[in-house]
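Regression test attached.
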Amino acid sequence: MIWNYFLMAAGVSSASWILSALIPKKEILRNALVLTGILSMAIYIGFLWTSLERPPLRTLGETRLWYSFFISIIGLITYFRWRYLWMLYYCLFMSLLFLFINYLHPENFSKTLMPALQSPWFVPHVVVYIISYAFLAASTLVAIYGLYQIKRDKFEEKYMLVADNLVYLGFAFLTFGLLFGALWAKEAWGHYWTWDPKETWAFITWMGYLVYIHRRYQKPKKYVSALWILALAFVILLVCWFGVNYMPSAQFSVHTYSMQP
Amino acid sequence: MSKPTKPLWQTPWGYAESFLIAFGLIIIGFLLEFTIQSSTGTSIRYPMNLILGAVFLALLLGFYRLIRKSSLFLFLSGIPASIGAISVLTLLVIIMGLTPQVPMQEENLITKLSLNQLTTSWPFLFINFYLLIVLALVIIRKSIPFKMKNWGFVCSHLGLWITIFAAGLGSGDLMRLKMDLHENKTEWKAYDDKGNYYELPLAIKLNDFMIDEFNPKLAVVENETGKLYEPSKPSMIMIENDLTTQLHDWSVTVDEFLPVSGRAGDKYHPLHDFGAAPAARVSVSTSTSETLTGWISCGSFNRPHESLKLNENYSLLMTVPEPKKFSSKVTIFTPDGKKEEQVLEVNKPQSVNGWKIYQLSYDEKMGKYSTLSVVEVVKDPWQIYVYIGIFMMMIGSIYMFWRGNKVTINNEQ
């Protein structure tokens, strides 16, 4: 029952999202299709919630449903505000990816998460990071392109404004990720900030983008240094994302799930 | 692009002065740390932290009144000072991110400078104080006179300030204690990291400790070293009845899986006994060898484990099951004579009398037969102020999302 309805809901969502990607120009129809996909996820989650008689947050499969749901919503909201079509499609792609993983691994619906991850904060924490990293990665591309254009003396101010906007949006989500993490930690471990290595590096990343934002605010005409700060900040972000597990400081981290047997 | 450089310390101050001040502060901090190490054991508690906080605020406002017309105010509330403070704090945090932050016994340059415990060191304290001063002056400058268009700016910055201020002052009042609850016993004492005991204004009786486990997993280990053999992934596969799977070069079939069992003679039987362990009958084959059949069990605190020798070098074994969910049924008593029944679970703490009670762990050697439940009791009277700061930052973030680069566009015009 649960599985068949999942196939139905995921089918509706996938079909409408893929269709929406095929008609990027027909705005109203496209948005309606995106919304249909989101609705079908919402209905399925609601159904799951009532039939399980508990919030569907306990298994790997269930959390992935929420990822799909929230990521597509944020994609649509961001589109309405900023008209970034690529971001909308990135979000829909990620949502589809999570649905597809669930489709390939039906057993995920019975795989209970480890106790510490069974929290209402878990999903929003991950979702906002997925969005934030996408914005910040895009801003890095702009930074590299900008530096290249400066070398060729073909730089235009509008690149800088694009980078700024991406950083502002990415930074807003990054802040949310950090703060959701803190609120969750208080519920799960008793304290909101313990300087766990991953927390430390997330904080460094946050500070890196903070430097960029302030630098831009003060010297809007100095492009080169700002672009370099932006590129460097992404290097720190990558350290935070992948590098932490390999550092001597990581031995006691709560975020290194991969090391557990 | 070269422009005439301004002599150092000549107003208006800029980046050079800002970085010099910030670096100077942490250098003084490290020198102080080297000579008189900040003792990590003492922390400023109520009412001392409240008084100090009030004095700091009063001094800050006095300082502002004193300098508000000077170029020092313009500098301290300006962006170069902010960037200097942020960068130098980031530098300290990068050191924290690279080196393990754990107490160490030996005495060397690292421990002398407290590089292994930076969050409780003088340089960290100094740079945070400096940041708080700069941030406060920035907020004052943006809010006097208050303009409606600055609300987002003030909200996020003030939120950050409140969070740092409250978290810093509150850290002395934060109590995180552990309590060992034994089934059917009532406990009212808790202990800290150093083994000091405290009497609590509440008592907890553990009625039942419950644990759900995942099925154990199959794994191959090297006979000689006992190390996990993992030439391919996944190197562990969860056992289920009638499972047939490929584990590295071996094809493994689970003929029979008993979640609780005991060995009698040459086989395992289902058994509900104190210490009964999971066991499975497995058949293993490779393309070149014949099928091997035997029983494996991960054992328990009172039963031996059993593995299946695959060849000279490797054995197949069953891993100890991991917990899926664990919880404690407790009765909580308070001095006013009230008692309440509660269930403590990971991620579901309960609040009683200003204390929050968290399910932490249990006797892992005993696994699901543990009659011990370890809970953490936390008192954090400043939490609400930290949360106010956090929510202000969240509102600031939403504002930021909505405004985007309008900030820089306006600034350039």
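Expected vs. actual: identical. Residues 175-211+325-379 of chain B form one domain.
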